[in-house]
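Hi support team,

I'm filing this because I wasn't sure whether my run with zinc ion finished correctly. The job status page said complete, but I'd like someone to confirm that the output block is well-formed before I use it downstream. Pasting the exact inputs I used:
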Amino acid sequence: MKVECVSCGHELNLDHWVFDDYEGSVKCFFCSRIMEVKTAKGIVYSISPPAITESKRNPALAETGD
Ligand SMILES: [Zn+2]
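And here is everything the job wrote out:
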């Protein structure tokens, strides 16, 4: 099966029996991004970014309300 890197969009080929029922981290060989991948019966169940909490602050919108 193939999964698409959440970071660079590169297709990762997971054609291996190990990945038929797999739950864990997969490293993109292209950009070295690590993703959490869940597969079941040879089908990709979910792909999510790594559990690295990046502190993203919502930019305060400038309010024009005098
Ligand atoms: Zn990548």
